[in-house]
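Check out a protein:
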Amino acid sequence: MMTDVMEQSGGPTRPEAGQAATQGAEPAVATPPTGASAEPAEQQTGTEEPSAAARIVQIRERIDEIDHALITLWQERAALSQEVGVTRMASGGTRLVLSREREILERFRVALGADGTQLALLLLRAGRGPL
């Protein structure tokens, strides 16, 4: 549950394996998992019933596609947000605009409740860094 998420380090994230640890490097693009696992269907799905196991696999494939899209969108949003901050500061503006952050927090809270607020806080942090 998102309400259980807490900031742990406050530091920069570590680069993925094979990704350069340079400032301004392009974010790694998420790729959906490929290939079937060597585990028996029951261990993969939690059921022995073939039609239920097949449906679970199908649903999970769609979930994996959605996860891939969410990760890609997250990375794009963070990059755009960082560009806004750099552009604003280069023109003599402030590091962040609190009214804009409150607007985003409210949008996510209204749509998703308390979990939406937590998600919005994570999105904001990804774009601007820790406060």
